[in-house]
């Protein structure tokens, strides 16, 4: 316990903590991000209703406006959708799906990109050329096109009964495959610098295997930029998932994300039920904005050239 207290005190006196305390926008973004993640993680505990339990839904409560508008009900603070589901509760549950998809997609793309970047930067030669040219080809295809392709292949390969259940993994695969190149390029550049240093030469002289050199020596020295990219990539992944869901390629209605909720509400905008899509859209904007602000701050703090 005493060591933990000493470490916390050391962190409180560090430059990182000082810069955080003197950055009000970053503090606001961090607090908002923590609050949104908490609401998503504890949705089943703090949500006023369970919007996906048919036994609790009342069709007579469908399309109720927010509580502060005439015709609204205090039971449904942000109103209800066309099925009588509480908008606030659907935002909590939908945000949980969006965050999970974003984290899983970033982890997948980071794993692929870091592995290929280490191999390309360490071995060089034709291996480096092949991996980087594959990355160039990858960048020539937009994420939407890759998602269409993967979704089409999944529909052909999977049985009809499994398509809804596997949509979560298909979306993660589509986003992850589209975003690995930036991780590979960053790690490759750092690896090409690190492999020429004395500690790598000493490890080779000591007959340390290449895999151990990559994982135990080079990888820890390249992880800083990777973490920054992962933080910034999380916001992009969440937004990409929302776009795919809005286009009908993302999460199904049985596992709605924020993008799915926005799409459902968009069909009712012309009939005057603006709150069905506005509030999920506002939650998406706030979530992505908070992630991007924290990610930009981390990039500035961890990059010595920007100090």
Molecular structure report:
The chain has 307 residues and is mainly α. It has a single domain (25-44, 85-306), classed as Orthogonal Bundle (MetI-like fold). Helices cover 70% and strands 0% of the residues. It has helices spanning 2-12, 15-21, 24-41, 43-46, 87-123, 125-139, 143-157, 163-178, 180-194, 198-205, 210-218, 223-246, 258-266, 275-302. The model has no long low-confidence stretch (mean pLDDT 83). Its main location: membrane. It holds the Pfam family BPD_transp_1.
Characteristics of this structure?
307 residues; MetI-like fold; mainly alpha; 14 helices
Q: Major beta sheet, specifics?
A: none
Approximate strand percentage: under 5%
Task: Estimate the helix proportion, in percent.
Answer: over 70%
Shape: elongated
Report the CATH superfamily: MetI-like
By CATH reckoning, the class would read Mainly Alpha
Low-confidence stretches: none
How many angstroms separate the termini? 34 Å
Distinct helical segment count: 14
Coarse structural class = mainly alpha
Please provide the ordered H/E string of secondary-structure elements. HHHHHHHHHHHHHH
| CATH architectural type | Orthogonal Bundle
Q: Which whole number gives the mean pLDDT?
A: 83
Radius of gyration equals 23 Å
CATH topology: MetI-like fold
Number of domains as seen in the coordinates = 1
Give the number of DSSP strands: 0
In short:
It is a multi-pass membrane protein. One of its GO terms (cellular component) is plasma membrane. With about 300 residues, the protein is mostly helical.
């Amino acid at each position: 316990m005493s060591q933990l207290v000493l470490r916390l005190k050391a962190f409180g006196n560090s430059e990182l903590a000082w810069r955080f305390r003197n950055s009000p926008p970053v503090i606001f973004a961090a607090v908002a991000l923590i609050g949104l993640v908490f609401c998503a993680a504890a949705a089943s505990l703090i949500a006023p209703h369970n919007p996906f339990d048919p036994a609790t839904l009342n069709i007579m409560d469908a399309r109720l406006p927010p509580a502060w508008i005439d015709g609204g009900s205090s039971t449904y603070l942000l109103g209800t959708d066309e099925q009588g589901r509480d908008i606030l509760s659907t935002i909590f549950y939908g945000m949980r799906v969006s965050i999970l998809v974003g984290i899983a997609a970033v982890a997948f793309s980071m794993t692929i990109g870091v592995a290929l970047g280490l191999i390309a930067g360490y071995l060089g030669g034709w291996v480096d050329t092949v991996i980087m040219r594959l990355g160039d080809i990858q960048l020539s295809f937009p994420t939407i096109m890759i998602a269409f392709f993967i979704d089409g292949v999944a529909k052909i390969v999977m049985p009809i009964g499994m398509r809804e259940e596997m949509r979560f993994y298909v979306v993660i695969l589509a986003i992850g495959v589209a975003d690995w190149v930036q991780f590979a390029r960053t790690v490759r550049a750092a690896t090409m610098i690190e492999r020429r240093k004395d500690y790598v030469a000493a490890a080779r002289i000591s007959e340390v295997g290449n895999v151990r050199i990559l994982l135990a020596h080079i990888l820890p020295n390249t992880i800083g930029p990777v973490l920054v990219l992962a933080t910034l990539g999380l916001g992009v992944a969440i937004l990409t998932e929302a776009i795919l869901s809005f286009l009908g390629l993302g999460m199904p209605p049985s596992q709605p994300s924020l993008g799915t909720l926005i799409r459902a509400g968009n069909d009712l905008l012309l009939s005057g039920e603006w709150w069905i899509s506005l509030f999920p859209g506002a939650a998406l904007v706030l979530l992505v904005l908070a992630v991007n602000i924290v990610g930009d701050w981390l990039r500035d703090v961890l990059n010595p050239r920007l100090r």
